[in-house]
Amino acid sequence: MNVVPTFAGNGARLDTSRLCVCTDRIQETSDVVTLIFECVDGRSFNFHAGQFITIRFDWNGEQFSRVFTIASPPSRPRRIALTIKAARDGKATRILHDHFGEGATAEIGEASGEFTLEGRALQKALFLCAGSGITPFMSMLRSLSDTGSDLDICFIQCARTPDDVLFEDELRSLAHLPRLHVEIVCSQASGASGTGGRLDMAKLAELVPDAAERSAFLCGPSAFMKAMRRHLLELGVPAREIFEEAFGPAPSDAIKSAVGDGQGGEARSILFQRCGINRVAGAGETILDLAEAAGIHVETSCRMGLCGTCKVMLASGAVDMNDMGGLSDAEREAGFVLACCSTPTSDVAIDL
User: Fold this and answer.
1) What does the pLDDT look like over 14-70, one tens digit per residue?
2) Fewest Cβ atoms nearer than 10 Å: which of 4, 41, 263, 268?
3) Which domains can be identified in the chain, with CATH numbers?
């Protein structure tokens, strides 16, 4: 049995950020870039492999805040690498991809997230990723390589075309890890290396015949994650052994779809105390939805209940907070909620 070594840090989100400078830029593919950052004050970063950070930067007088998973390992703490895909309609990612390079500065917050190997007793692992979902796994693999791990890992990266494959050369170079098996599956392969066609259950069973014996870690677009989880369950992987890190639609959309008329259509009164603004929330509307509609600024980033950027103080009332771990226990006890994923279940007052 392998117990993954624990690096410094406890994984808790802190309300601090550091001024950082970009020291290098690596163009991975036509629309994916890796930016390397170091702290201006020379301090080291403190994180677990697989965790994410919030990066904040100004561009032409406009402020941006976004969440990215760290791609570099905690065993090299003097710098962090963020591998960023320029989204077609994403202004912030397009700025980072097109304009950030050596000398650019940004504020980077403390790392957070539970999608890690830390403290887990693993015998065999399966890493399944698509697109930018590879980043937490690169941090994990680089860390395991640095520590000389002999963990049995089957790694599968799914991409659209061979040109979209990320870190292929480095993955092949990690062959010195004695029990690492790498597979690349391209849905539109054209005679290049890797397996062609989409990763369905039959192909997954062929590539990982002992899937039922492995702890599975998934990261990628929501449709990919949903399909892979279903395949893994059908292949006999226990639900408790499937760990996921998702990125996809804003939680307000997901919550509205899931909640529907679950509150019976009853309107809730929302008072933004410092602004003196009252609004009425319908079924499924979040505090963030109401604040933005009223023109009240709430700093936000992931919009998925992950990063904790949009935390606000609930002065009175109750909410249903459908979060993904963005608050610490101390923050919850203090009365904070996440605006992006909190829907009122009574009349509420918010300290804004």
Assistant:
1) 346 899 999 999 999 999 999 999 999 999 999 999 999 999 999 998 888 889 999
2) 41
3) 10-109 (2.40.30.10), 121-247 (3.40.50.80), 252-350 (3.10.20.30)
